[in-house]
Structure formats: structure tokens, C-alpha cells
Design a protein that fits this description.
elongated; 58% helix; mainly alpha
């Protein structure tokens, strides 16, 4: 998985999300245990969920790709 760029790095976007307090606290604890900042840990979790290179074969990405292929073949038969 890629390293998180510093705050001033090109291609880094600052954003705000709202999280339930208990979720935020649990993610903070996980980050501390893994020796990461909260921001880096959240970025790593989101990157893994999206497919580290955005398009990798994660379960969600694979399922979406299969659905898209099915839709395409259905329309091709019309």
C-alpha cells in the first residue's frame, strides 16, 4: 500500500467527515496500536476499501465489475 503524502504534497485534499464518537474513538485506538496517525490510518482504511490503486480487485470492486459486465452483456443482447 502506498505511503500517505505530507500535508503540502501535491494531490492531497483536505476534507471533513462526521463520524459517530464511538467509531472515531475505536479508529483512534487502532491507529495508536499500529503506530500511525489518525489521518494516515483512516486514509489506509479507505484506500483498502476502495482498492489500493482504485480498481484493484477488492470484494466490492470485483462485485461492481461483475455487475457492470452483466449489464453490458444484457444490453448487447438487445
Amino acid at each position: 500500500m502506498s505511503t500517505i503524502q505530507p500535508r503540502s504534497g501535491e494531490g492531497v485534499i483536505a476534507t471533513t467527515i462526521r463520524l459517530p464518537r464511538l467509531l472515531r474513538d475505536e479508529v483512534k485506538i487502532q491507529a495508536i496500536r499500529m503506530g500511525r496517525s489518525f489521518n494516515t490510518h483512516v486514509a489506509m482504511i479507505l484506500g483498502a476499501a476502495a482498492g489500493a490503486e482504485f480498481g484493484d480487485a477488492t470484494p466490492a470492486a470485483g462485485k461492481a465489475q461483475q455487475m457492470n459486465q452483466h449489464k453490458a452483456s444484457t444490453h448487447a443482447d438487445d
